Amino acid sequence: MRICPTMFFILLGTAAVPHLAHAQGNVEVRVDRLEGQMRAVQRKVFPGANGKLIEPDISGQEAVGDTRGTPSGSAVTDLTARVDALESQLSSLTGQIEQNQFKLRQMDEGFTAYKRSTDARLKALEDGRSTGGTSFGGGDEPAPIASSRPSTARPTTRPTPSGTVPSRATPPPVSSTRDPARAQQVAAIEKPSTGDDGEDAYNYGYRLWEAKLYPEAEAQFRSIPKDFPNHRRVSRAQNMLGRALLDSGKPNLAVLAFYDNYRTLPKGDRAHESLYYLAQALTQLKKPASEICKVYDELTDVYPDKLSDAMKTGVARGRAAQKCGK
């Protein structure tokens, strides 16, 4: 039996239509699945305000019209292009997510290391205070950094007590009495008596410090927080204890005294001076510039209105020597 050419082409076209429709249907399923995955990724990576999604910069090509039922290759080509675009976007977003997760892990590890180091330093500081240790920081120290010590400023106010009657001022240490010449120097320092025992004790210690009798001044200033814990001169006494230690060549112990005054009495009238001299003590100990710069930053941030002109000049010189920057 012969089939005419017209009937042959009709049958051929009829057979091709289901094949194209089946291929197009498979591609549309892939497109729907990828578009769903893309929306889930967008909600994770590009969250906007009020839960709205931020459209990505690259989007798949939109179909111009409904081409289903049209037996042509253009619809399949268009869908294939959309699938390729979606797969490319999904791969890019996956890479961004992995990079962000890696950065978050790095930040978490860095913070954990910083917290561990800070806790170790604070513990070493507390242990040093209880046992008379001298270490302010933990671990091995780097090579010393060349720096110049900022100029120090004497207190602008000098005590002017009156009276000569002996008071409750703590007697000088026994070591000073073993040297007759030094005992005479200590005896020559007048002990004030104004009726305020705490004030008299502080003024006597200050006079010992002025006379460069540093061990005796140290003992005097140490007694004030114990004998007069609520007196208004406690902050000054603790600060002067640090200065006596610093001037007698004991910067390690001075660091503890200055830091303790700032930590326990941050609102004391000499807390800012303790921070200022703490930086100088750390400089003498050749501590890392990063530690010294942190002290200067803390000083200028917490007490910007309490710095005298001389202290501002010393801070600027110290920051320049340690290359702290602005």
Strand content: under 5%
Low-confidence stretches: 130-172
Tally of helical segments: 11
Gyration radius, in Å: 39 Å
Structural features, described:
By secondary structure, the protein is mostly helical. Among the domains are: 162-231, no CATH class; 243-326, Serine Threonine Protein Phosphatase 5, Tetratricopeptide repeat. It has helices spanning 5-45, 74-131, 174-178, 180-187, 197-210, 214-227, 234-247, 251-264, 271-284, 289-302, 309-322. The chain is rod-shaped, with a radius of gyration of 39 Å.
Summarize the structure.
This protein is 64% helix and 0% strand.
Question: What layout of secondary structure does this protein have?
Answer:
Layout: H1 5-45, H2 74-131, H3 174-178, H4 180-187, H5 197-210, H6 214-227, H7 234-247, H8 251-264, H9 271-284, H10 289-302, H11 309-322
Helix pairs in contact: 1-2, 5-6, 5-7, 6-7, 7-8, 7-9, 8-9, 9-10, 10-11
Name the descriptors:
11 helices; Serine Threonine Protein Phosphatase 5, Tetratricopeptide repeat; 326 residues; rod-shaped; 0% strand; mainly alpha
